[in-house]
Each structure stands twice: as C-alpha cells, then as structure tokens.
C-alpha cells in the first residue's frame, strides 16, 4: 500500500492525530471521504438501490442509515433491500435489483463467491454498480477501510501486548469475506517475525446468527483445556465474536487473556471501559463515513465523473483504553 499522505484537509487530520494520540490509517485514495459536502452533485430524480447483506450489527446499521440519509440529502430516492444475512435471500435480492432498473446500486458486504455472478448481471444490465467492503471486479468503486493497514495495526498491538510470545486463539469463520481474509492474512504475516507467538490449531469458527452466544460457548469450553499462562490472546476479524469471547473471559475470571477485533461496536467499546477488561484493542471503523462516501461516489459518477478510483479507503482508528473517549467522540458515539 502507498504511504500515508496528506488528504483532503491535511491540517484537520494532523490535528486529530495530535489530539487523540491514536493511529489513523489512511492512503491517497481517502480524499473523497473528506471532501466538502457542498461539492457533491445532486441525485435529484435518481433512484439508488441500497442492497444490504444484513442490518443486524452496528457496522451494518450505521452504514445503511448513512447511505439512506445521504441519498435523501442529495435529492434522490433510496430503494432499500435487506437480505437478513441469508445468502439465498441475498441472491434473490440481487436478481430483484436487475428488474427494478435503478439508476445505480450499492451492495454492502457479501461473500464474493456468492454475490459475484449476480453483480456481473447487474453490471451487464448497464446499471452502475458500487460496493462497500466487497471488492468485486464488477464494481466501479468499492468504499472500504484500509484493511491491510487495519490488519497490521491490530496485529502489532496484539504482539506488543503479548510481549512477542505465547499462544493465540483465532476466530476464522468468514475467510470468504475479502475484508476478513485481508485482516487475517496480515496477522499471519506479522507473526512470521515472532516465532514464539503461535496460532492454536484448529482455529475457531465464528458464526451468524447468534455470534456472541456461540463465541462465548466456544471460549468457555476451551478455557478448561488451556490453563492460565497457556493463552495470551484471542483474535477475530470483527468484534462481535470478540464481544462473546470477552464476556466468557470475564465470567471465568481469565482476563489475563486479551482480545482483539475490528469494527468498534459500542458494546465492545463500553466493555473496554471496565477495570481489568480483557479487551486489548479494537480497530474502530467509521461506518457512517463509509456509507456517506459511497453515495457521494455514486453521485459523482452519475454526474459524469468517470475517473473515480477503483477503491476509496476511509481511515480507521486503533482504539485502546487510553484513547477510547476520544475515538467515541470522533465517531459521534457519545
């Protein structure tokens, strides 16, 4: 990835970095995420299909609502579709999009092997296709966090906290989702330089639905197998399994094990506030900014701008107990 460079409002970003003392992960493709709202073209008379894999988690909900709000703010009409995190429903949903013939489609998340054939159909139908966290070859632009930098930052914090040695339990149930794969690959890459820090096999499998409960049960069962001192950390590509794992550690009195994840779900951040919390770090995404940015890219494209980057990256925030209040304020969580 290119080095971080000053983006649309560099003085603002530098000020945030000084004030928060947190890691802001960005690349040169982030510029549109910080553009002044006044320079975004109107969507008046345009129908924009907002296709969601699901809306059951913080990231989903915030991204979805931001898309709806921004389409309306720009004068367009949002067509909302929610597959309820069911692949069969999602396929049917994407088929429906083709028949509805909107002016553009934004698909949020999804396993590429499932959605790509249907995204291809949307593209072949001449409907401009945009994605969020789904880097399909058929997407004109994918708005996402910088997941390589995110994965590196999370791995680095885990390694630092563990002192470069010990054993790590990993949740790896969604490697088919590109952003999850990227984050996990960065963990494995970082661990190559720390041979005394090892991933415990077999890996754990996070599931949907009942993610929190299932992660709680899996970790609770394993704690009997691994006594104190045998596990340093638990890692997940997102923070809903991290939430379940953390609750299991608290209930078992095993908070010497630290957990790591991505998203910044409010329940996870609140749990981080607790004394002796097992949550080591979360890389907090900015889902509202991601959703808003995706819609603005659609508006620019429909207004004739054809030089959009293949991917627009939105900064993420490495969050620990030390900078938690500032991160929550920046994201508007308070």
From TrEMBL:
Family matches, as SUPFAM superfamilies: Periplasmic binding protein-like I (SSF53822)
Subcellular location as annotated: Cell envelope
Keyword Nucleotide-binding: no
A GO term from the CC aspect: cell envelope
Keyword terms, alphabetized: Signal
InterPro entries per the UniProt record, alphabetical: Peripla_BP_I, SBP_2_dom
Domain spans labelled Periplasmic binding protein: 48-305
Molecular-function GO term, any one: carbohydrate binding
Matching Pfam families: Peripla_BP_4
Family: Belongs to the bacterial solute-binding protein 2 family.
Protein name per UniProt: Ribose ABC transporter periplasmic ribose-binding protein
Originating organism: Pseudomonas savastanoi (Pseudomonas syringae pv. savastanoi)
